[in-house]
Amino acid sequence: MVLRTEKAVSPTTGEVTWLLVDEETYRPHPEAREFSLYLWGARRSPQTQRAYIPRIGRFLNWCAGRGTDWKTVGLGDMTRFKFHTERTPIRRGQLPSGKTVNAVLTAVCEFIRFCAVQGHVAHDVAARLSEPRFLTSPPVGFDPGEGGQHLMVKARVLKAPEIETAPATLTASQVAQVLDAAPTARDRLLLTVLVEGGLRIGEALGLRREDMHLLPDSTHLGCRTRGAHLHVRPRQGNVNGARAKAGRHRMVPLTGNAVHRYRDHLAERETVPEASRCDYVFVNLFGAHVGRPTTYSNAKQIVERIGRRCGFRTRPHMMRHTAATNWIRNGVAPDVVQVLLGHASPASTAVYLHARDDDLRAAVDGTSTGAER
User: Fold this and answer.
1) What is the pLDDT of residue 352?
2) Distance (Å, rounded) from C-alpha 100 to C-alpha 167?
3) pLDDT for 294-308, tens place per residue?
4) Whole-number Å distance between alpha carbons of 199 and 196
């Protein structure tokens, strides 16, 4: 039996889940189906489901091809699967990075741990794939317990080496080009919210008008935060599938540019009756789905198309990387950047602290100049 990933859409709610099905019979893999429902019930993002399920299918197909019972895999089997993943080319014949390999191993180990809890596999099968580790950077609000016993967590035994590099960002000149090339006020507002506020694309697309507090004083709205800002609120069931990661609410200050562009966008959408009635901030202004909230795929196409028009590559998450990098380089404290980005752990923010090639060159050149004097 060869498994393939298929998208399942609920006929009543329209919600999307991802399943592994038999290529011939289209019968869902039972344990993988339970795991997919668990991810959905745990409010993991649709992107997480979409990423995890194919990785698990890759592992199950590998086991079936070798005649290995996935329910009894040992550390040796997982080591061979790791080697197989590392040596199997992906896009354009390129071998996967260490980060990609680790993402596959994480999905598989989480699946096996879930199956152990559900009684589908023996607990010792999942136990031998993990080892205790000390949690050095607990998330905000984490309770370490008496004596710190909760700081010991289970981590994967197998891990591929990763080459840590600074995230791809845009220069100030490129940001200006992208904003100038945006064809609509909506697109300029979306780019501004991403590149100045550091929002995830799902957070931006889930914004409602009531989340935009743009006056100097918002007490009449029941909000004590002063100055222009927006609220990222975790909502379930957004019709465009937008999600605020990890279900945490946070406030993000807005610049004067964002305020002016929001006003321009409101004026623009008032000329489209279907759009003016929608409560979402970002809506389709034309086409077959005019007036409906903008989806992730639409927003991704918008950002990438603007980048191509400017002659360089752009992606929605690159805007968030740019915002975080600018904050760090302008001297904003890492813990403040962590709150602005909505990171649960300082480790997620630490990626923006890595030095780039230009930083290393500037440091060496500066030292050499001082030595010559």
Assistant:
1) 85
2) 15
3) 999 999 999 999 999
4) 8
Token pair belonging to 278:
């929608």
pLDDT of res. 136: 55
The pair of three-digit structure tokens given for residue 139, joined into one six-digit string: 């998330």
Q: What are phi and psi of 101, to 5 degrees?
A: -60, -45
Q: 4-16 burial, b for 16+ CB within 10 Å, e for fewer?
A: ebeeeeeeeeeee
Q: Which DSSP string corresponds to 23-47?
A: TTT-PBPHHHHHHHHHHHHTT--HH
Q: Among 238, 245, 261, which Cα is nearest to 191's?
A: 261
Residue pointed to by tokens 């399942």: 8
Query: Residue 155 — φ and ψ, nearest 5°?
Result: -125, 155
Identity of the amino acid at 94: Q
What is the Cα–Cα distance from 78 to 89, expressed in whole angstroms? 19
Is 0.90 topped by the overall pTM? no
Confidence grade of residue 369 (pLDDT, cut at 50, 70, 90): low
Distance CA 341, CA 258 (A): 17
Determine the pLDDT at residue 153.
47
* Cα–Cα distance measured from residue 353 to residue 11, given in angstroms and rounded to the nearest whole number: 46
Environment class of residue 223 by beta-carbon count within 10 Å: exposed (0-12), middle (13-18) or buried (19+)? middle
Query: Would you give the end-to-end CA distance of the chain in angstroms?
Result: 73
Whole-angstrom CA distances from 12 to 9, 37, 281 are: 9, 16, 26
- Where are the strands (E) in 97-253, listed by range? 130-134, 152-156, 212-213, 229-232, 250-253
Pair type for strands 250-253 and 229-232: antiparallel
Q: Mind listing the pLDDT tens digit for each residue in 146-202?
A: 554 444 445 666 787 776 677 889 999 999 999 999 999 999 999 999 999 999 999
C-alpha–C-alpha distance, residues 30 and 115, integer Å:
11
Cβ atoms of 68 and 59 within 8 Å: the answer is no
